[in-house]
Specification:
Keywords: Amino-acid biosynthesis, Branched-chain amino acid biosynthesis, Leucine biosynthesis, Lyase. By secondary structure, the chain is of the alpha/beta class. The chain has helices at residues 16-19, 30-34, 45-48, 69-76, 89-97, 106-111, 143-151, 154-168, and strands at residues 2-10, 54-57, 81-84, 102-104, 117-121, 126-129, 135-137. It is globular, with a radius of gyration of 16 Å.
Length: 169
């Protein structure tokens, strides 16, 4: 999968309350969650993010509670990929489970500036900063994770498998 878009930079220790403040957790509707994504840090974020853009953050992104609302809000507001120096373990798994590609690449984070344009190839593990021309290597997603993300997340992947099984029978 190749993702190309302008980036939005964030710092260290962005927690799930920053991503989607607890006051907005009375819904699981992705459209509603998207309206409040990142308002814990930047109240204007939902208005300035466009579909297909990329979020970049420093270390420990997604720390805090294990709420699945956080990656859902990020994906629903249009972010196509998150790159960080490191992720909280539960956030990482929740993101993959909902079909949001997330990539660990400290070098890219360190050398990228807000509003640079990146091209991310999750299949071969390559990040190219279109703005600077710099290329970064990262671990490609294993084939199973690629299929899971392409399907739109774990639940969609399971539905596809069930539909295929039903067609065979």
């Amino acid at each position: 999968m190749v993702i190309k878009g302008k980036i939005h930079m964030f710092g260290d220790n962005v927690n799930t309350d920053d991503i989607i403040p607890a006051v907005y957790l009375d819904t699981t509707n992705p459209v509603e969650l998207a309206k409040h994504c990142m308002v814990g840090i930047d109240s204007t974020f939902p208005d300035k993010v466009a579909s297909g853009e990329i979020m970049v953050a420093n270390k420990n992104f997604g720390c805090g509670s294990s709420r699945e609302h956080a990656p859902i809000a990020i994906k629903a507001c249009g972010i196509a990929c998150v790159i960080a120096s490191s992720f909280a373990r539960i956030f990482y798994r929740n993101a993959i489970n909902i079909g949001l590609p997330i990539i660990v690449c400290p070098e890219a984070v360190e050398e990228t500036k807000d509003e640079d344009v990146l091209e991310v190839d999750t299949t071969c593990g390559r990040i190219k900063n279109i703005t600077t021309g710099k290329i970064y290597a990262t671990a490609p997603f294993p084939e199973f994770m690629q299929r899971l993300i392409s399907a739109g997340g774990l639940m969609e992947y399971v539905r596809e498998k069930q539909d295929m099984a039903a067609d065979v029978n």
